[in-house]
## 1
Amino acid sequence: MCTQQLGQLNEVIEEIEDLGYALYGVSADTPAAHEALTEKIGLSYPLMSDPEIMFYREAGIIQPQASTVHRGVVIYSPEGERLYQQVTDDPATVLLQHLQLNR
């Protein structure tokens, strides 16, 4: 995700948590880059590093043989079952809409 989408998600983190969910950002960037970005824009949720883009492949937001990663939303149950996924440039809106409709 780019800085804009991460910031938008940061603006709605309390609402996400109030609905009973946790939020994690995932990107192919290094942990050091994540730490710098977290400090720069004041993120309130953790970023996870996936340099080999395994999460993206498993989550279905990248084609198996492709190298282009798409922005998206993936929701998992506490048991690890993937409940929802969508490629989108507006993850904050898509995430909140889905969580609110499925409480």
Note: The mean pLDDT is 88.
## 2
Amino acid sequence: MFNLVYKSVANSLSPTQIDEILVESRNFNGKHDITGCLIYHDGFFIQYLEGNVDIVSTLFEKIRIDARHYEVILLSKGSIYTREFDTWSMAYLSNNLPNEAFQYIKLMVNPEFDIPNMSVVPNPTSKRFWLAAKLLLNKIGHENFNKDR
């Protein structure tokens, strides 16, 4: 099992375009046994993907050249023992969340708080972040909550 995390800057996207990205992602991921979470906040994406190393790596190369975003930066990648988002083909969190619940996630994607150079292997900081995102998804039952695996 393999995971990969990246962040990027979105081109101007409407809510409909974000929905299209989610539908496309969920369809592809469901067919290829990929799970993960997409976070969108103030024009920035951060995404966690997990699955087969070859499939996730090939998908990331497609994501890297997608015209809907730019400045794609790989934050971490590496082997994992188990999936974090095993029941989501693509969970989604956005700034529609209650303010107090979103503050931790906002810190991760906000350009004012540049992420220091991280080694490109899973690390405790990124694991805690994604566990917090998963717990938030489970807790809030938000309309963007998608448990479709």
Note: The two ends are 17 Å apart (CA to CA).
## 3
Amino acid sequence: MLEIDPQPNKRLHVGAQTYAINRHRIRRAQLAFHPDVEQLVLDMEECLMCIMRVADSGQKIIALYNFTKTFRSVNENTLKALLGSDVTQWQDLLHNQALQHEDGCLKVKPYACHSISVV
């Protein structure tokens, strides 16, 4: 179990430690984050990395990373084929926030990481 360091200035700020602990708990609760599940690297546009994890239960998580200082767009049709067509059911598990959609594309903020699944 993760614990908060009593001397946060030596390692991580307390807020960063709390975020890390919560992120760990969220990941443990998702079957598709288990280390033994199938993992596929998907072909995306340049500067985006996309990894799909599929649990035996059928749960899918798409990890989407933007490695640039600019917004990137991902065609929603690509993700719909993997997650289903109801984009209102997609959720960023690690940030517990709605995703930005615009003109049939999912907007990915600079240097962002999203773990998207159907809720």
Note: The beta strands are 38-42, 48-54, 60-66, 72-75, 90-92, 100-102, 105-108, 113-118.
## 4
Amino acid sequence: MEKPNQGLDDATSQQDHTLATLLTNEQRDLNQREADIAIRSVRPTQPELIAKRLCSVRGYLYAAKSYLQQFGNLPSIAELNKANFIDTEKPGRLMTLLNSQGFSLTRKNFPVISNSHIVQWELVKQGMAISATAEEIGDNEPLVKRVVISNLSLITMDL
């Protein structure tokens, strides 16, 4: 029977091999060999790169149950306009997306900006703010709850 980390053990036991991971939301130049393999939610702009759609991922807004208590069970967009959100960049794709859906968010609603989804998610779980994540992650985390808003289009990304 194979151990759970057998592949990692095999890869790192070779003296001439190094396993390096770089987790970032920043676009890397694959032509410069900054990465051998990349999973992206946007199509590459370099025509010589080969892209293959792996799947579609649906995303929703999530917040810690403790954070959502201040807004009630089914918060309205007007109530959520007073909430804190976390985004990956300034002025922010999430802010732009939500404002296109009827929100009236400003930079003041985004007290935390982080290019690390791991950091964002930990802050959401700690009750600091609301952010978007894949339903497979959000729906399986007991500390958080999906923010349900009627008529809000879900976020879909192709990977």
Note: The radius of gyration is 19 Å.
